[in-house]
């Protein structure tokens, strides 16, 4: 998302942020409550009894009848007010202005005009940036966070500070390590992204009264689709045409969106800025009406929204249509319902007058928008008398919610290297801990982007200093680290029993509209780390705070650097969680949700090449653990524990038959695969039984990954994740884990034409170092 104007998009953002800063300052200095303290809602029959006669205000009627009643009362000009994020009011019908744009990527956010903080609610719980939460591989955590966020959102709505419609989560595949927004996503794997998206959405949307038609708040899966480049070497998202094969589309870019709509029942999907194969996503009837509504059955109580301001972008920047009226008509006729921006407000009436579209198309769009608001209770009168009406400021930043932020960071943090005798540090042995680095005492850096004002911060230094005596030096003035205080840092490390180096990136290195070209640690960081390691006497723990992976090969191979931790952007309680892990009060269990490539990878691979699969003829190496076979710094799924876990196979099939009709062509000629959509290819399941044991001396959680390597047909992935399960095991105990595998769903691959196929022949399942082969035949 960017600002709302096509011209000078960037300057406008800065003006907005500037104004915001001033407001914050004003609020905190004066403690004056300027905000209204009541929620915005329609059908206030208490203040205005005449509204009770309107069918759309009648809660005994169904949503669709109420929507029909409302739409028929509106003039064309009034209808158009409801096509944009800053929706207009119709006072004769008791409908107030409503701002659709709020954000809640990892906590209620002030990005988006629908939500703000004040002295009434000065902050909200700020969870780790999504990439770190994803590293927990804990699906119940994804949902638990969503639930807390929606509770805080409702509480803020009740005092007039927040909206009900949140444009989160971001479930684009983290295709390339340079992407500045990779931090916002659940990583590079379609299955993990699907589980994250549907879990977080359920947490946001699901009501506690079991009313499945109602919404606690409305979520939105974005940015549809194949969007994962912001600004790289002069190519920006407003002009980029993502050239995507049918195969990559259907097995990499689309699955998270499909899962979000089908499994997560998300209330909304947002189309992106970029073009896909020459067509802007927000103008593509096939991608919107065809796939989202047609194939995935996004029903009429859910809406499709543009990124801000995608229609303007495809008219003014991509010159996709000759006139603005055509752009407006194309978007609405493609299946769009709501425009973040003002474009549809300005050009829709003229588009109708010019005969480019009928009013009925507008009716359809606003009906979807109204239906969403009805599901949220917006047309049911005072929300303080409804299910979530008792929530208020006391429910935001509660001790319990803040503890979950700390727990989420602990669960996500990944231990990448640990030489015997390094971590965990002993509280009794360490009398003096040196804490060094430009990220060692940061606050805002820890919450990444799409952030809100947090309840409070615990910096890494504060977290560590709460356990032992520390000395502290930033080492560089910021993460860009153009000069480093090498000698002072060496002296400090030499005098300490152990050294923790907190390095990495922040939004000045990787951000929205800012992709990297370099994935090494910025500036002089590497030099500083190496010099400190060389001078230190005790263990040296390198903590990388970043969204994207870093080429830290130098540290991996340096024996003096005894441990490496990746902490993402760990949220408001990040420093406490880092200390929990370093001192062993929590046993690390996070696993990397994305490949960490060497710098040579980005030197050789253009970010603009969307292909997932390698191309031997050009030397193109492919992308992600599913296709890339070259060197990595760290791999998808990497992550150590203070314990060890063993996997034992108890039961798995050696042979699976997919029966076919007698007349099937595969009986007369040899087939390499059969269609997963075959009538007979349904519900062919087997259970895989495993015994997982914690063979170490410390209790801890462990993620069991089930990968599959299919026979090599259809350019299929070398391996792909079929399932994962995170379990907790006390030291020296074991547990039986069962994976239920649906052969046609879970083990199938997408062929060159985009159809799912079950390959015939030998499949290999991997669990840790365990391998099990079995044959699929007809
Ligand atoms: C609301 O709808 C119900 C069901 O159709 C109807 O019985 C009732 O009279 C309506 N209420 C008002 C105030 O019109
Ligand atoms: C408008 O509606 C008429 C009558 O249903 C139909 O024939 C025409 O194709 C529609 N125009 C557009 C642009 O959809
Ligand atoms: C660490 O950061 C906190 C919060 O910004 C600040 O209050 C504190 O003074 C800093 N500590 C040091 C030693 O600089
Ligand atoms: C490490 O320290 C030793 C002596 O303490 C010095 O000779 C060597 O050059 C140093 N190496 C680096 C990479 O700083
Ligand atoms: C998953 O997260 C939930 C919520 O924080 C937690 O209660 C549970 O213990 C976690 N599971 C494992 C196996 O760590």
Give a structural overview.
The chain is α/β, with parallel strands linked by helices and 778 residues long. It contains 23 helices and 27 strands. Helix content is 29%, strand content 17%. The chain has a six-stranded mixed beta sheet. Helix 11 packs across helix 12 and helix 16 runs parallel beside helix 17. The longest helix has 22 residues. The protein is globular, with a radius of gyration of 27 Å. The two termini are 49 Å apart. The chain binds 2-acetamido-2-deoxy-beta-D-glucopyranose (5 copies). The site of one 2-acetamido-2-deoxy-beta-D-glucopyranose has 3 residues, from helix 17. One 2-acetamido-2-deoxy-beta-D-glucopyranose (NAG) binds next to loops.
Query: What is the total domain count?
Result: 4
Overall average residue pLDDT:
95
Shape-level CATH architecture of the largest domain: Alpha-Beta Barrel
Name the shape in a single word.
globular
Radius of gyration: 27 Å
Structural class: alpha/beta
Low-confidence stretches: 2-35
Total count of helical runs of at least 4 residues: 23
User: Helical proportion?
Assistant: 25-40%
β-strand amount: 15-25%
CATH topology of the largest domain: TIM Barrel
């Amino acid at each position: 998302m960017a600002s709302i104007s096509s011209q000078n998009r960037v300057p406008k953002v800065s003006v907005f942020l500037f104004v915001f800063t001033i407001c914050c300052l004003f609020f905190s200095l004066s403690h004056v409550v300027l905000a209204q303290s009541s929620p915005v809602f329609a059908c206030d029959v208490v203040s205005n009894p005449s509204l009770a006669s309107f069918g759309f205000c009648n809660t005994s009627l169904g949503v669709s009848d109420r929507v029909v009643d409302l739409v028929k009362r509106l003039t064309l000009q009034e209808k158009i007010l409801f096509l944009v994020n800053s929706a207009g009011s119709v006072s004769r019908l008791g409908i107030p202005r409503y701002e659709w744009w709020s954000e809640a990527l990892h906590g209620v956010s002030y990005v988006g005009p629908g939500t703000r903080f004040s002295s009434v609610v000065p902050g909200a719980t700020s969870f780790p940036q999504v990439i770190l939460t994803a590293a927990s591989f804990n699906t119940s955590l994804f949902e638990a966070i969503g639930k807390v966020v929606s509770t805080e959102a409702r509480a803020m709505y009740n005092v007039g500070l927040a909206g009900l419609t949140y444009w989160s989560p971001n479930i684009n595949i983290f295709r390339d390590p340079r992407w500045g927004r990779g931090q916002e996503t659940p990583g590079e794997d379609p299955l993990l992204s699907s589980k994250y998206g549907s879990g977080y959405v359920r947490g946001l949307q699901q009501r506690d009264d079991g009313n499945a038609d109602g919404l606690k708040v409305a979520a939105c899966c974005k940015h549809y689709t194949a969007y994962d480049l912001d600004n790289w070497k002069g190519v920006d998202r407003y002009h980029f045409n993502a050239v995507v094969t049918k195969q990559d589309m259907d097995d990499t870019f689309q699955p998270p969106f499909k899962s979000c709509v089908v499994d997560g029942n998300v209330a909304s999907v947002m189309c992106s800025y970029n073009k896909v194969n020459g067509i802007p996503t927000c103008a593509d009837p096939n991608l919107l009406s065809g796939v989202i509504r047609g194939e995935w059955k996004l029903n009429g109580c859910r809406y499709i929204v543009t990124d801000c301001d995608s229609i303007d972008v495809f008219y003014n920047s991509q010159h996709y249509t000759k006139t603005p009226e055509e752009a407006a008509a194309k978007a609405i006729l493609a299946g769009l319902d709501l425009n973040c921006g003002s474009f549809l407000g300005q050009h829709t009436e003229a588009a109708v007058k010019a005969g480019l579209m009928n009013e009925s198309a507008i009716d359809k769009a606003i009906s979807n928008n109204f239906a969403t608001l009805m599901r949220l209770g917006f047309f049911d009168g005072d929300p303080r008398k409804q299910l979530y009406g008792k929530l208020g400021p006391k429910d935001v930043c509660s001790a319990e919610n803040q503890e979950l932020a700390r727990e989420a960071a602990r669960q996500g943090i990944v231990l990448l290297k640990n030489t015997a005798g390094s971590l965990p540090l002993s509280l009794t042995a360490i009398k003096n801990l040196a804490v060094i680095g430009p990220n060692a005492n940061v606050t805002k850096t820890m919450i990444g982007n799409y952030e809100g004002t947090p309840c409070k911060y615990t910096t890494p230094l504060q977290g560590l200093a709460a356990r032992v005596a520390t000395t502290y030096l930033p080492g560089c003035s910021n993460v860009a680290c153009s000069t480093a205080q090498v000698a002072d840092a060496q002296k400090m490390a030499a005098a300490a029993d152990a050294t923790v180096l907190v390095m990495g990136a922040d939004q000045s290195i990787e951000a929205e509209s800012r992709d990297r070209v370099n994935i090494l640690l910025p500036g002089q960081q590497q030099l500083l780390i190496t010099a400190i390691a060389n001078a230190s006497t005790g263990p040296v723990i390198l903590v990388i705070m970043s969204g994207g992976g870093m080429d830290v090969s130098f540290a991996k191979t340096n024996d003096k650097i005894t441990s490496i931790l990746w902490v993402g952007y760990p949220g408001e309680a990040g420093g406490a969680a880092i200390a929990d892990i370093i001192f062993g009060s929590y046993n690390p269990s996070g696993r990397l949700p994305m490949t960490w490539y060497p710098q040579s990878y980005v030197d050789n691979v253009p970010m603009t090449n969307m292909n997932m699969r390698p191309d031997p003829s050009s030397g193109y190496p492919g992308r992600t653990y599913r296709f890339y076979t070259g060197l990595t710094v760290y791999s998808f799924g990497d992550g150590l524990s203070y314990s060890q876990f063993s996997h034992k196979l108890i039961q798995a099939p050696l042979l699976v038959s997919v029966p076919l009709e007698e007349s099937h062509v595969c009986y007369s000629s040899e087939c390499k695969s059969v269609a997963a959509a075959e009538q007979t290819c349904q519900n062919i399941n087997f259970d895989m039984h495993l015994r997982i044991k914690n063979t170490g001396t410390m209790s801890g959680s462990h993620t069991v990954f089930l990968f599959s390597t299919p026979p090599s047909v259809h350019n299929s992935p070398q391996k792909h994740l079929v399932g994962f399960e995170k379990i907790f095991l006390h030291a020296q105990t074991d547990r039986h884990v069962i994976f239920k595998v649906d052969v046609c769903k879970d083990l199938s691959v997408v062929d060159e034409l985009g159809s799912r196929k079950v390959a015939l022949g030998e499949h290999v399942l991997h669990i840790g170092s365990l391998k099990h082969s079995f044959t699929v035949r007809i």
